[in-house]
Structure to design on (357 residues):
């Protein structure tokens, strides 16, 4: 049973404020993701929970107990670092067994050790590497062993700092599906740091988005995806990034300055007159190829295809429309080529509206 409470945490290195008045409340058993670009303060936050940095202000409590003055060794947390520290002269098996033999969390019987190592290495896809030495592994394999070292033992809280960052995309996707199923992970409070929004959306019970050491938004993946509080969050989610269009709101309509976008203001948003920024995700835009009809009653923007690029099973188009350039991701059966005049279908319900610049 362990909640984690971070209250008003601040940590400054020389001139850089790495974490700036951060407060987070993490529930017992929650899989909590901290998402943000490099330098956002994610690692510093995790290290503060582990007790590995002296914070300037604020407090961390685990299971309702303040960790002030509690040595890292006495906090029952297990942390995996971005760099994978392994014993170079020990085999993978012994690297994984050593946290179970150290006695910090109580001793595990030989049978228990064997079972835990088996469960973790199967999930991580490293069960065939048990006799190897770290130098005989690839970076991705080493990173999985390092993660395994954390997950084999029980702890009140797992702290995982970009644990899949060195894996290739395919393996990363496969592992993120399996990670949460791993026995202990499914019930142990986990703080998981990543800069990869897909990982965050796939894994998090909730996600906190950090920018310059500050909390920008916290919520479920659904809330963060559907209701990003600002353009920073909206842009952090999605590749290619969300399209942003400056517009004026008046008479119940949204118009871009160049007139290319002129649509009814979404009634569910109840917008005051003035300026706004529209956000439209590339996958939410429809592309109507030359010679095809846009669905009746659809809101259409005209444009010309500047670039067409295949993205695996999808196509990415860059469409020039007035002064804007809009990115569209469409199914690959959409036949449009560079230079074609096309229509883009705007999905009113999926248009996000943000404060103006
Ligand atoms: P993230 O993990 O999100 O990339 P970090 O917590 O590592 O961010 O770093 C946040 C900021 O603090 C960065 O600007 C980084 O350069 C700075 N920083 C982190 N650790 C140190 C350190 N030991 N000394 C000086 N600056 C640091
Ligand atoms: Mg980091």
């Amino acid at each position: 049973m362990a909640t984690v409470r971070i209250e008003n945490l601040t940590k400054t290195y020389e001139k850089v404020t790495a974490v700036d008045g951060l407060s987070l409340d993490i529930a017992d058993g929650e899989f909590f993701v901290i998402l943000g670009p490099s330098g956002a303060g994610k690692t510093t936050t995790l290290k503060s929970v582990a007790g590995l940095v002296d914070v300037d202000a604020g407090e961390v409590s685990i299971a309702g107990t303040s960790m002030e003055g509690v040595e890292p060794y006495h906090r029952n947390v297990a942390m995996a670092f971005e760099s994978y520290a392994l014993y170079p002269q020990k085999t993978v098996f012994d690297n994984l067994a050593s946290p179970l033999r150290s006695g910090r969390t109580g001793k595990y019987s030989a049978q228990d050790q064997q079972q835990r190592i088996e469960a973790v290495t199967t999930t991580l896809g490293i069960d065939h590497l048990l006799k190897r030495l770290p130098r005989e592994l690839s970076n991705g394999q080493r990173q999985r062993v390092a993660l395994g070292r954390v997950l084999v033992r029980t702890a009140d809280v797992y702290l995982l700092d970009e644990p899949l960052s060195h894996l290739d995309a395919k393996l990363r996707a496969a592992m993120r599906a399996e990670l949460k199923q791993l026995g202990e992970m499914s019930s142990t409070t986990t703080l998981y740091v990543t800069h990869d929004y897909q990982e965050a959306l796939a894994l998090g019970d909730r996600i906190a988005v950090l920018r310059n050491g500050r909390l920008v938004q916290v919520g479920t993946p659904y809330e963060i995806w559907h209701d990003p509080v600002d353009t920073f969050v909206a842009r952090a989610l999605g590749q290619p990034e969300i399209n942003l269009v400056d517009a004026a709101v008046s008479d119940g309509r949204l118009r871009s300055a160049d007139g290319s976008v002129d649509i009814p203001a979404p009634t569910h948003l109840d917008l005051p007159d003035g300026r706004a920024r529209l956000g439209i995700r590339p996958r939410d835009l429809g592309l109507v190829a030359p010679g095809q009809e846009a669905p009746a009653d659809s809101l259409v923007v005209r444009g010309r295809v500047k670039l067409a690029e295949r993205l695996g099973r999808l196509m990415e188009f860059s469409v020039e429309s007035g002064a804007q350039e809009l990115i569209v991701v469409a199914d690959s059966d959409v036949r449009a080529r560079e230079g074609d005049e096309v229509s883009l279908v705007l999905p009113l319900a999926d248009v996000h509206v943000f404060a103006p610049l």
The radius of gyration is 24 Å. The domain at 243-354 is CATH 2.40.50.100 (OB fold (Dihydrolipoamide Acetyltransferase, E2P)).
